[in-house]
Amino acid sequence: MTASVERRRFDDPDETRRFLDKGRTDVVRLGGQTIGRLRLEPGWVWSEHVGPALGTTVCRESHLRYVISGRMAVTMEDGTEVEFAPGDLVSIPPGHDGRTVGDEPCVLLDLTGLGHDREPS
What we know:
7% of the residues lie in helices and 43% in strands. It has a six-stranded antiparallel beta sheet with strand order 1-2-3-9-4-7, with no helix packed on it. A three-stranded antiparallel beta sheet has the order 6-5-8, with no helix packed on it. It has helices at residues 46-49, 51-54; strands at residues 15-18, 23-30, 33-40, 63-69, 71-76, 81-84, 89-92, 96-101, 106-110. Strand 5 and strand 6 (81-84) form a beta hairpin. The chain is built from two helices and nine strands. It has a domain at 39-103. By secondary structure, the chain is mainly beta.
């Protein structure tokens, strides 16, 4: 049996998940994994733009993310806040709210956390 190499591009995603007027996630399934490229516009807040559709105020998924551009902040349920910048590789546990920081869109890769729910966090 010969293994085959898979190659995909976010320009041709399996699906695009949009949330209101503040961003989207292009989702690609590759090698048995679900990977997303998120573009979160200035003013995007998870609890306002995603949470209502899921009936919760915090994201219950864990994420492994890589920030390409822009900035994002995550606030945990205990009040701890961490801000991410381009080049950061971040592990985020369940129980968080997220938001863009500043006037630039935040573009990042979500390497885990998109396979279970239908909305980005």
